[in-house]
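Work Package 4 report. The design task specified in the project plan requires that, given a folded chain encoded as structure tokens, an amino acid be chosen for each position. We show below one input record used in the internal validation round.
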């Protein structure tokens, strides 16, 4: 294994903290990763990692070497990304995670176009509503909706997504249409629950310059985006969701927007990845592609 590959293996092990996960990410065997790190430590004359049965951690010497390794890999990534749009030099595995809300026909078809444009990139697509740990799970980048907590991840802004409150025509016929957010307490709501603690995600409204928050206390709770929307279509009650996942249902008339004049402030959509200085060319080209495609795909539901 040449020096550049050795540094790539070292950096990946430093990030993932696991020989097995590093082997999977680098598409090689665990023994090969072990030998590579042992040979590197022997050549440098220092121990780079503290190894236990559960965790692999950098030593102080390893931390110093990791900082230099990131600089080297960053320079290499910058050089190779100069030719990223030719469609021929892009190769390798690309692990992307998206919320279930985005796994709609329009985006999936566009992802297929991406693989046609870059046929040597092996795309691994994860679809989930839980928060993914990019470093621990070896994910290259993720799409996320909403305000982002402070972290070491790099976030690139895509746009502001318009939120819509709606219900089925049958529900509105039976229960009436609320005219203000204050009337929601007399209605059934569909609550989206997220996170490990199954927290209810509140609805937001914007009224005369003031933000209002509302959590439905009557109705059904759901922890998956597609099921959340289907409950609305089935007539369980009122829901609030990004316009991009409601678009076809609103157009078909299976859902009807309510409280339009109280639409909440749009929520940010971002693409996140672990490091700016250690960015693989295939990740770079995907991030730029996503930022270019989203306004094209969802122009009517996305603000800059």
């Amino acid at each position: 294994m040449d020096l550049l590959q050795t540094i790539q293996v070292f950096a990946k092990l430093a990030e993932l903290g696991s020989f097995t996960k590093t082997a999977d990410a680098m598409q090689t065997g665990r023994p090969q990763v072990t030998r590579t790190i042992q040979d590197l430590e022997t050549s440098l004359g220092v121990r780079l990692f503290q190894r236990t049965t559960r965790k692999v951690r950098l030593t102080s010497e390893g931390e110093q070497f990791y900082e230099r390794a990131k600089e080297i890999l960053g320079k290499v990534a910058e050089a190779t990304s100069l030719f990223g749009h030719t469609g021929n030099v892009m190769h390798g595995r690309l692990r992307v995670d998206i919320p279930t809300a985005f796994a709609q026909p329009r985006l999936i078809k566009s992802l297929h176009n991406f693989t046609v444009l870059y046929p040597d990139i092996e795309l691994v697509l994860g679809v989930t509503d839980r928060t993914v740990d990019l470093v621990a799970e070896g994910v290259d980048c993720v799409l996320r909706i909403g305000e982002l907590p402070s972290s070491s991840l790099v976030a690139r802004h895509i746009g502001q997504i318009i939120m819509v409150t709606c219900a089925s025509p049958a529900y509105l016929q039976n229960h009436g249409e609320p005219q203000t957010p204050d009337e929601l307490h007399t209605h059934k709501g569909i609550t989206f629950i997220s996170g490990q603690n199954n927290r209810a995600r509140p609805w937001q409204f914007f009224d005369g310059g003031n933000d209002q928050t509302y959590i439905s206390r009557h109705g059904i709770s759901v922890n998956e985006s597609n099921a959340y929307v289907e409950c609305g279509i089935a007539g369980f009650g009122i829901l609030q969701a990004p316009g991009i996942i409601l678009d076809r249902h609103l157009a078909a008339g299976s859902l009807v927007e309510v409280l339009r004049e109280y639409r909440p402030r749009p929520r940010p959509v971002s693409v996140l990845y672990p490091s700016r200085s250690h960015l693989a060319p295939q990740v770079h080209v995907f991030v730029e592609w996503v930022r270019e495609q989203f306004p094209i795909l969802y122009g009517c539901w996305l603000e800059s």
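The domain at 163-262 is CATH 3.40.190.10 (D-Maltodextrin-Binding Protein; domain 2). Validation will be extended to a larger panel in the next phase.
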